Structure formats: C-alpha cells, structure tokens
Amino acid sequence: MHTPLPIIDIAPLYASDVKGWHEVARQIDTACRDWGFFYIRNHPISAERIAQLKGAAEQFFGLPVEQKLQIDITKSTHHRGYGAIATEQLDPAKPSDLKETFDMGFHMPPDHPEVLAGKPLRGPNRHPELEGWPALFEQHYQDMHALACTLLRAVANALGVESGFFDKRFIEPISVFRMIHYPPRQTATAPEQQGAGAHTDYGCITLLYQDQAGGLQVQNVRGEWIDAPPIEGTFVVNIGDMMARWSNDRYKSTPHRVISPLGVDRYSMPFFAEPNPDTIISCLPGCQSRDNPPKYPDTTCSAYMLSRFAETYAYRREASAAVN
Ligand SMILES: O=C(O)CCC(=O)C(=O)O
Ligand SMILES: [Fe+2]
C-alpha cells in the first residue's frame, strides 16, 4: 500500500544496539517534524491480540443500544464507558460524528484517595458484562502504555531531555484506550456528517490500530487531505496538541479526519497517551531560544484535557456550566 507517510521499523528500540536505537529516534524526530504522523511496524502487540480485540468490538457494538447505554459515558463522572452515535462533535463546523465509542483509562478503585477527593478523570473503568472482557482490556491498556513509553523515550532523546523524562510523567497517566465503530456510509455523495470530523488530538501521542476498511485522512502542509491507508501489522502514530506545546511546535499536531467507507463497517482503536494529570506542560528548554520564545502559556495536563473535552462534548459543556 503506497503512502507518503513515513513507515518506521521500531524493532531496534527493543534491541541492545545503541546505534540502531539512535537511528530510530532520529527517524521518529524527522517524522514528527515533517508530518506529525507516521506508521510503526515490528511493534510488540501481537496479531492474535488485535484479533481478540476486534472480535470483542464487534460483539459489544452489536449489542442493543439500551444494553450499551448501561455504561453511558455521558453519565460517567470521569469519562469512561460507551458513547452513542453523535455524542462527540470533533469538527464544530460539521454535524456530530457518525461513530460510537468505548473509552477506558487508568483504573483507580472507588476507595482510592484521588477518587474519594473527586479528582477529575479519576475512577474505576466501566467494562461491559461480557466474558473475559476486563482481563483482555486491562492487559491491552498496560501493553499500549508500555509501547507509548518506549516511543516517548526516543522522542525525549530527540527533544534534548533525559530519556526518562516522559516515564516519570506517565506513572499514573490519564491515557485513554478507545474502541470506535463507524457504521457504513450509504451514499457516494460526500456526507455532511463525517465518521470523525477534522481535528487534532489533545494529548501527547496517539497510537492507532485501524482495520482494513480505510477512511483515515491526514492534512498535509499544503492543506490537502491525503489518505492514511491501513497497512497490515502497523499502528499509525501521531503527535497531539500537548506534545506540540511541549516542543513549541517543533513537532506538528496534524489535523486528521475519518470519512466512513461506503457500505462497510469500520473499526479502529486509538490509544491516546496522556501524562499524569498534574503534569505541567511547559515549553522544553531545548525547544526555545531568544528568536523562538515559547508560543503557549504553561498549563497542566488535566486542565488542558478538560478544556478540550468541553469543546467536543455537549454534555461536558452543560456539566461545566452547571458548576460555574
Ligand atoms: O478512527 C480513526 O482512524 C481515527 C480516530 C481519531 O482520529 C480519534 O479518535 O482521535
Ligand atoms: Fe484523532
């Protein structure tokens, strides 16, 4: 499958050859500067795991809507569970997205001090009552977290901070693993309502599995939409807005969208890597100079995430209006 987006073999990140490791870090750095998007191959997530998750996604999204709504995300204080069609509106100029979702995060039991204190985005996961589900998904969350940290060590090196810079900031992260089902588009005419409207991701980096249906598009520097086609055995990785802020836009947070394919269901599974909630997102020393001062004010991870959720979810706007 041809694509101008870089495809990076990350096997050397897991080997002991230091030169090979640095070469991959260099390729990631170039891809993040040029595109903010790239594919990774030879990652440690097995094809068997992906098949299990895909089976689970088909089973869950195939349930009657009332059953899925037992874990309705709009009734969750900490943003976990099922988001029905049109719950999210990624492009404010377009109707709400034609997709349904399941979101999980870093599990904290109800009696954890941070949960008892009502800390935003903290709490237990809300899994559907399907056999084997919690074990499969909690394991996958951990494995995606480990993969994200491996990539972030290379990113840290490229950005001129110690290689453990991000590890320390991802001890109890607010990363989200999400499953998405895009129902088929019925007509060849470009739909007003897109699968996922044009947007940039909020977090640090996103690692996306997409099935073979296609439909993901990325905006290039000329503002044209190009396809990011499915490539067997890969993840698509992209930079989010927090990393753009950290790197003072040295790394691009690139707009992307999903045009639902005609007549076929599409499934995708992004893992959004987002640090510990109190992490300060502040321009890194190596990414600023007298001629290139910080472009963004400092913020914290959770304040930033909450402000972005309020933009894309009507129920979140209503929740913050009720508090204020
Ligand atoms: O489903 C996809 O391929 C992309 C989804 C996406 O961009 C997102 O959820 O942020
Ligand atoms: Fe996205």
From TrEMBL:
Question: Could you describe the subunit structure of this protein?
Answer: Monomer.
Q: Protein name, please?
A: 2-oxoglutarate-dependent ethylene/succinate-forming enzyme
Sequence similarity: Belongs to the iron/ascorbate-dependent oxidoreductase family.
UniProt source species: Stutzerimonas zhaodongensis
Q: What class of enzyme is it?
A: oxidoreductase
Give the signal peptide as a residue range, or say none if absent: none
Q: Which Gene3D superfamilies match?
A: B-lactam Antibiotic, Isopenicillin N Synthase, Chain
Give all residue intervals belonging to the Fe2OG dioxygenase domain.
172-275
